[in-house]
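# nightly structure sweep
# worker-07 picked up a monomer target from the shared queue
# config: single-sequence mode, recycle default, output format = structure tokens
# input follows
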Amino acid sequence: MEAKKISEQISVSPQISPEDVKAIAAMGFRSIMCNRPDGEGADQPTFEEIESAAQAVGLGCTYLPVVSGKVQDEDAVAFGQALMEMPGPVFAYCRTGTRSATLWSLAQAATMAPSDILAATKAAGYDMAGVVRRIVNGGKTPTDSGDAAFDVVIVGGGAAGIAVASSLVSRKPGLDIAVIDPADIHYYQPGWTMVGGGIFDAETTAKTMGSLIPKGVHWLKSAVAAFEPKDNAVILDGCRVVKYNRLVVCPGLKLDWNKVEGLVETLGKNGVTSNYRYDLAPYTWELVNQVKKGRALFTQPPMPIKCAGAPQKAMYLSASNWERMGVLKDMDIQFMNAGGVLFGVKDYVPALMEYVERYDADLNFFHNLISVDGPAKQATFEVSKPDEEKITVTVDFDMMHVCPPQTAPDFIRVSPLADAAGWIDVDQSTLRHKEFDNIWSLGDVMNAPNAKTAAAARVQAPIVAENLVDDIEGKSPTAIYNGYGSCPLTVERGKIVLAEFGYGGTLLPSFPKWVIDGTKPTRAAWILKEQILPPVYWKAMLRGKEWMAKPEKISAS
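# output follows
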């Protein structure tokens, strides 16, 4: 007998015997529910035997039998009603526990998010893929037969999604392509560091989604609830079903603000800001101008995060501005990094350390932000140094720039497409899914060991487009991804260390050293970031013009 906990209210189990009932009571359960019809198996005890044993130890007992593989809508309603009426916690069982888990999933569907239901059942060891459409449809069997179908469906209309749609259109104009994204606005997120540094206006980093979807590509303005890769289907909110011949998944990642206690309540006030949000980046600049004396904290959570250099970029630009204002000597700058190094590619560290020393910033490694008290202006960190006991420290601040913890989106983490850590599981060279041959992924959501940056997506989009078209034409993938990513580290106003690297930290500079030496701070790299890259993003990358991003080719095998 094994109790597999799904929620505080219920655990499920395979078939139990009367002898197990005493142990169930000892575990703190107050009721037992049987979802297996009597007589289903020769060695199966009857419900009456289980009920008798339950009564003997003071447990409630309910019989709600369901035929295997035939869970009806009304069964789920009855299960939900019984769950409300029975003393909890409840121990439910059937032959394997799957029927009980299915009934719970459908009963909760009207009030819980599909991703939360799928996560709870997955954690208990039960796969609800077979009833995902019903879960998305509020626990009811769908009756809508108006499904749409496309040659290529792209999930996500961010940098990766629009770029790959445009690259596909430019390669094979006749493809019937749909982009799925619920957002009205598309953001140039690499510009938010510059907004926080007082260089860009926030408005220049936003355009309407409709203005960027390539001509002839359908825009399905909806959120994705689940995937059915074995049926080549994407389930949208509201249980609409979109079929595909080939699928590209690139919805970005989730900024998990709620993972830090008290953070959401204080963002945008009490001196707490973040360049990771469009509406907060201007507040960073406001604080830099207001706070001219005191302690400034800059936090970095555990990896992976999008643009691993962004937390320290905020620190350098703020310090550069305080230096220009003549108040740097009055500022106590603290970099609170959950990791153990300043930057993951060692070649760039010497140049960065020069600025750490110039700004007299303290580096605090293995410090992970876990809570914020905004009104008190205090931040608490968990300190996990190697071979030392874990402790917590609370630090006062006058200003704090927060980089939030980041994960794959909920609907990705619980999907059949994800690896054990929740990221889309791809071949790191071709960006094709490891299990499903007609699925590709790019951008922040996939699990290749590259930096999660817009520059990486700029290079990945043509590679995915090339390999997808190869597949349509019956060929093996011919484009390979070398892990390229770029992080323009804004070390001072007017100079940048242009970090460009691939898998394993291999340096992959785009320019000769005499043009831009990426390991040193240069004015040329600043001009690239400030004046050249934004139009390259809007007018080239998002329009299928693959400037400096033509795929590296290999011979088809």
